[in-house]
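Retro notes
What went well: the complex prediction finally ran end to end.
Inputs used:
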Amino acid sequence: MLLDLTQHKPSGVTIDNCQAGDMVTVSGMIHNVRVTKWGGFIILRKSRGLLQAVVQNETSKFFDESGNEIALNGLCREMAVTIEGTVGEAKIKDPAAFYNTIEVAVSTVRVLSRPTTPEVVDMNALKFGDEETLLRYKFDNRQVTLRNPRDMAILKVQSTIAKAFADFLTENGFTQIYTPKIVSEGAEGGANVFKMDYFGKQVYLAQSPQFYKQIGVGVYERVFEIAPAYRAEKHNTSRHLNEYISLDVEMGFIKGQEDVMTLEAALLHAIISRVVTDCAHELALLNATVPQLPQQVPAWKLSEVHEILFENHLCEEDHRGEDDLAPEEERAICKYALEQFGSDFVFVTHFPSQHRAFYAMDDPEDPSLTLSFDLLMRGLEITSGGQRIHKEADYREKMLKRGMNPDNFRFYLDTFKNGMPPHGGFAIGLERITACFLGINNVKECSMFPRDINRVAP
Amino acid sequence: MLLDLTQHKPSGVTIDNCQAGDMVTVSGMIHNVRVTKWGGFIILRKSRGLLQAVVQNETSKFFDESGNEIALNGLCREMAVTIEGTVGEAKIKDPAAFYNTIEVAVSTVRVLSRPTTPEVVDMNALKFGDEETLLRYKFDNRQVTLRNPRDMAILKVQSTIAKAFADFLTENGFTQIYTPKIVSEGAEGGANVFKMDYFGKQVYLAQSPQFYKQIGVGVYERVFEIAPAYRAEKHNTSRHLNEYISLDVEMGFIKGQEDVMTLEAALLHAIISRVVTDCAHELALLNATVPQLPQQVPAWKLSEVHEILFENHLCEEDHRGEDDLAPEEERAICKYALEQFGSDFVFVTHFPSQHRAFYAMDDPEDPSLTLSFDLLMRGLEITSGGQRIHKEADYREKMLKRGMNPDNFRFYLDTFKNGMPPHGGFAIGLERITACFLGINNVKECSMFPRDINRVAP
C-alpha cells in the first residue's frame, strides 16, 4: 500500500473556511443538547470552543454507530459525532462560542462513539459554593474537567505564550536547547530539591537549567529552553507548583544587564501581540485584558523604588534601607508605573548580593549589590534575571565566601576556565505569566495537570 | 530609567546582512589564531559557525580588556572578542566556515574576556585513535567540546527538527501541551521506570506522555508535546538514552491508522524541507544527505514484509510467520523501498497484539493483530504509533486479559468512560531521528548532555 502524504489535509470547504450557504461536514464532541418543540440545538465542542448546530424535526436525521436511525433524544453529552449540514449566520452572536458568527442547520448527525455512562461530568455545571471546593473537584477530575471551555481557553493561551516565546527568540538568533532534568548538582542550592536514585547513585531533578544554559552561551551565543523545572517546596500556595514549565533565556556578548532587560521587554511585547491576535476568543471568554507594555518600560533600582514610594506617600510604611521589596511595595510600584508610564511592567534592579544566587554578577560600583533584576507585572514577580559572572576566579571567590566547595562544580567552573563572553539571562514561569495575563488567582489553574505536595494524579 | 524595547536589535549593517566594502562590528569567540609574516588569521566562532578575519601587521590593532594595545600573539583561543573591520569576498570558500563567502579585514580586535588558562580544550584537535575514546572524552568535557563546530552543527539540526515539528503541527490545528513528568502510574509498563520519593509517596518519572496526550485529544482534538521521557534501561548501547526528548503526537476523529501515518509522512516532509532550507551549512559540514521521502510512501503489513523479502530473495533466512521484524529484515525492506519507491521511509503495520502496548487497538478483522505501526528509516525504527482503543469496556477487557488491575488506572479509564473520539498517534525520539538524518552512529552524539547508566554529568 502506498500512502499519499498530500492527503493529510481535508480538501474543500471546512468549518474554518466556510461561508453562509456552504454544505459542511464537521466532527466534534457533543457539549450539550437542548430539545425544543420544533427540534433543538446541539452544541458541538471543537478544538477552539463551541459551535451551535440547529436541529429541525422535519429535516434532521440521526444515526448511531451502526448506522441505525435514532431520535434526537438518543444523543447525549460527550458523544463523538460527525455533523453534516448547511452553514448559516448565527441568530445570536454568543461570545461563549468560538464559532459565534455562524451556525449549522443539521442534515445528519452520525455517532462515532459514546460515553460508557450517561452520568458524564457536566462541564456546564462546574459551579460550586466556594472556590476551594471547585478547584479540588476540577483537579481531581482534570482528565474530564479540562473539557470545560474556560479551562480549555486558559491552556490555549498558555500554549500560545510558549509558542510566541519560541518564535520571537528563534527569529532573533537564539537556538533552542534541550538540557537534562536528571542532574548531579542542583543549580539553585537550598533544600528544595527532589532527590532520586539513578542506578545506585543519588541524583536530583533540575531546579533550573541555569548551568546548562550558561554553557549554551559558550556554544551558540544565545540560547533558550522550554522545559519542566522542579522545586520540592512544601508550602501549598496559589502561587507555587512543584513541577512547572520554565521559559529560560540566556544571551552572550551583552554590554550590561540593560541588554537583557531590553530583550525581555521586546519579547513580552511580541508575546502580548501574538496573544491578542491568536487568542481573541479566549480573552473574551475569560474576560481578560492583556497587560499594557509601552515602548519605554520603567526600570528602577531597589533603592530608587523605596525612595519613589516614600516620597509620593504610596506605602503605609517607610521601606527605605530595606534589602528587599515588601509585598505592599510590589503592588504600589506597579500601580505607580501604570499611572505614570502606562506600563503594567516594572523592572527592579540592583538587589543585594546576599539575596541572589551565587552566579549573579556583583555591581563593580557597589559589590554589596548585584547586576540583577526582577520583573514585576501587575504586582507579582514573574521573572528573575541579570548579568552573570563570567570569570572563573570570580566564581571561586564568591563560592568560597559563601562556604560552597568549588570542587563540587567542576564541569560548571571548567566552562569559565575555558573562556566565556559577558552574558546574562532570565527565566519566566509559564504558568505564572499565564495567570498574570489572564487575571487567574491560582497558578495551578494554568497547569494542565498541576503537581503540589498533595497531588501527583491525574 | 526607561528602557526602550525597540533597541533590542542592532541597527544598520551586521555580519549577517553585510556586503563587500561594508564596515562591520562582530563579536564572537576566537576559535583559532594563525600568525604569518605579514599578519595572520583569526578564526572567529559565531552561533552558526566560523568566520575568517584577516590581520595585516601594518593596519590591524589589538586591545586587551583594559584598552591597552597588545600584539597579535597576545590573542588566544576562546577569548571573547569584538572585531571591527571591512568586509571582503573570501579568497577561499571554505565549506567548514559558516561565513564562507566573506572575510573581514581587521581594523581592531578588542578582548572582552579570556580563558583562565592557555590550556583550553583544543576543539580543532578532537581526534583520537578509536571512536570510543573520542566519545568518552567528548562527553566527559561536554561543557567545552560542544564548541566543536561538528557538535554545534548536530545539535543545531536537532533544534531545527524540533522547531519544524512544532510549526507544522501548529499550522495544522494541533495544540502544544505540557504534561507532568512526575506521575503516579507508568504508561508503558515494564520494569524500566525510574522511581522517586515525592513527599513520602512513591512516584515515577514518565516513560511517555501517552495517557496525557490521549486525554488531550478529548480536549483539543489534536495535540502534541515536546518533552523529556525517561527509561531506566540498564543496557548501554549506541541506540539508547535514559533521558531523551520525545516528539509526541495524538489526533482525534481519525478514520483509521492510515490517517495517522499520512499525517506523519506529511510532517516528516515538512521537517526535511526545513532542515534543507535552514541547515544547508550544517548538512555540508557533516557531509550528510537528508532522507528521501516521495509523495507516495510505502506501508506494508508485517506479514507482507516477510512475504516481499522472501519472494525477492532479499534475506538470508525465511522469516515468514515470525511475529516481529528481524534486524536483517529492517535493513532489507528499507533497501527495497528505496530502490523500488525512492523512499528512505517504510511503514510496517499490523504487529501482533501481544508485542504492543495495551492501549493499541486490535484489528477487528484479526484480533491477534493490532492497528499499529512502526516507521523505519534507513534500516532503523524511529517511530511507533497506531490507533488506540477509545472505549472503556475494551480497555477493561484487554487489561484483565493481561493481568493488569483496572483500578490502578482510574483517571485514565475515566477519560474513556466520559466519551472519547476514535484517535491515534505516534512518538518520535528526537535524538534518534537526528542521528538518522545525519548518519550519526551513536544517538548520544545527538543529545546535548547524554544520560546513560554511567553518566549523569556534566
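What we learned: The radius of gyration of chain A is 27 Å.
What to try next: split runs per interface for comparison.
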